[in-house]
């Protein structure tokens, strides 16, 4: 097990809690001891654990775990914001997903969280000019998790993707901070135009399951997109849109819909 630093709790309470939860999980389910030790307890920081977990999940006959881990380690060492964003994502999942009772659950089991962390490394690679390797990360993320995020998309922190299957986020999409979305969401284009062609999602937005937001349009801060909606026009801040095509059906209902996760439409 990684050596426990006596001041780590003060410096990184998220990682300290993950370590504590890992130790408790090994005691309650010894058969998972190997998984939990290799993925969590063996590592000296959250960034090393994230690097290991990402490389393990994305490894294939085409690219070894060792090579992928070296790439991920390089990314986390060069950009400390990657690990900071992961902490915010973990906290977001824990606070918003009623099925999440411990921080180790997203680290070990939730593909939405894991796919976002793989995207973050791919985005770093893209910005370093290593586009082919970024595309490899995107491909493997799609194959392993069923989530397709272009490495050039810009995604903030505090992101919660619940269930996460069939998420598609296009090349020029922008997603703000503290956004929540459910499975089968598409942030896509409307044709073959090659310039800025994907949605711009504001901070604190909640996007329901199966919703499609298409084209270079803005979805304002703290708005809600109802499940199954097809959004083709700009959405003002703090509003709820629903339908095909989506129309404004009321206010968002609260100041932080992405946190409350209330998807009900009032009469």
Automatic annotation (TrEMBL):
GO process annotations (BP): cysteine biosynthetic process from serine
Classification via InterPro entries: Hexapep, Hexapep_transf_CS, LbH_SAT, Ser_AcTrfase_N, Ser_AcTrfase_N_sf, Ser_O-AcTrfase, Serine_acetyltransferase, Trimer_LpxA-like_sf
The EC number(s) this enzyme carries: 2.3.1.30
Protein name as it appears in the record: Serine acetyltransferase
MF annotations from Gene Ontology: serine O-acetyltransferase activity
Entry's family note: Belongs to the transferase hexapeptide repeat family.
Keywords, in A-Z order: Acyltransferase, Amino-acid biosynthesis, Repeat, Transferase
Pathway: Amino-acid biosynthesis; L-cysteine biosynthesis; L-cysteine from L-serine: step 1/2
Residue ranges annotated for the Serine acetyltransferase N-terminal domain, each copy included: 14-118
Pfam families: Hexapep, SATase_N
UniProt keyword Phosphoprotein present: no
PANTHER family: SERINE ACETYLTRANSFERASE
Catalytic activity, reaction form: L-serine + acetyl-CoA = O-acetyl-L-serine + CoA
GO cellular component, one term: cytoplasm
């Amino acid at each position: 097990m990684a050596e426990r630093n006596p001041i780590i709790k003060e410096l990184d309470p998220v990682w300290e809690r993950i370590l504590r939860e890992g130790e408790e999980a090994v005691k309650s389910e010894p058969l998972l001891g190997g998984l939990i030790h290799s993925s969590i307890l063996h590592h000296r920081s959250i960034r090393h654990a994230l690097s290991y977990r990402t490389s393990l999940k994305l490894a294939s006959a085409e690219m070894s775990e060792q090579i992928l881990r070296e790439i991920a380690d390089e990314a986390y060492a060069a950009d400390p914001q990657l690990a900071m964003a992961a902490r915010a994502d973990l906290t977001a999942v824990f606070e918003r997903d009623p099925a999440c009772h411990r921080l180790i659950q997203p680290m070990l089991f939730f593909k939405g969280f894991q796919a976002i962390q793989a995207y973050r490394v791919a985005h770093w690679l893209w910005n370093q000019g290593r586009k082919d390797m970024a595309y490899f990360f995107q491909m493997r993320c799609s194959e392993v998790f069923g989530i397709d995020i272009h490495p050039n998309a810009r995604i903030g922190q505090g992101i919660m993707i619940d269930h996460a299957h069939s998420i598609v986020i296009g090349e020029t999409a922008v997603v703000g901070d503290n956004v929540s979305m459910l499975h089968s969401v598409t942030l896509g284009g409307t044709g073959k135009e090659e310039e800025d062609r994907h949605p711009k999602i504001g901070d604190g937005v909640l996007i329901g399951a199966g919703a499609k937001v298409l084209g270079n349009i803005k979805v304002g801060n703290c708005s809600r997109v109802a499940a199954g909606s097809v959004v083709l026009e700009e959405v003002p801040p703090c509003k709820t849109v629903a339908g095909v095509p989506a129309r404004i059906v009321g206010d968002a209902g609260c100041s932080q819909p992405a946190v409350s996760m209330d998807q009900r439409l009032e009469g």
